[in-house]
Please model this.
Amino acid sequence: MTRVLVTGGGGFLGSHLVGRLQVDGHDVTVARRRDYDLTSYQDAERLFRDTEPELVFHLAAEVGGQSVRTARTPGGNWYANLMMGAHVLESSRVAGVAKLVIAGTVCAYPKHTPVPFSEDDLWNGYPEETNAPYGVAKKAVLVGAQAYREQYGLDSVYVLPANLYGPRDNFDLQTSHVIPALIRKMVDATDEVVLWGDGSPTREFLYVDDCVDGLLLAAERYDGADPVNLGTGVETSIRELAETIAELTGFEGDLTWDASMPNGQPRRRLDASRARELFGFEARVALRDGLARTVEWYRSSVGAAAR
Model:
């Protein structure tokens, strides 16, 4: 049994990871913001002192859909992600943590990264503007992890998951990402759903349970300094995604594209070969199957509660 700390363990990805760790018999602590504010070094230090973890997964992040990053709190987003990452690294060093697994973001990649995204291209340009405060802050944490490995011998590894989705995602339309937002809009609407941009951008979507597999494999089998993508290698346009969700939800209204709103990064698809070669990760859940499970969960949980 290992003492495991999961920052952001009450969130979407974190809750799935915590459940798996508990099933595997580990002693898991979930770090929640109401108890420990990781933007404060004093709180981070107290958390590590209270829990004495051997293995840490740093998943805590200030995130949200494109509208949140564009129009609301880019400065706070940058600050929170940078500080949380720095404090987790320093606290892990001080506490003598055996292994630290850090979840990065595909938003860290340059806006015009050649597709598929290779980890070697991470520094070859500036991120897409609406994602930049978040992406740059998370990329700085990668630099910190590599520096702490070199100077202090901290075994910190950094993975870059594709866009995540699945049951228990955030379905709040003010802060959600594209898949939960589309599911909620199409389940709740009857005549029209308005979508940002023109539907041409592409994204890669990773089912949450597959991401959990990747995190656990990285913790068990990977000890390198280089960042590693976690993805499916499958590229899907936002228009195709919307049409698939409409079919799965039974939405028969109009899909209206508001081209006056930003598209975001033009294309995203990851080269996941490094994860396969270094620690045997391969995604197993096809997008359509994962979307069907997520729609079913929303209807039976969030949608039912709303009614």
Summary: The radius of gyration is 19 Å.
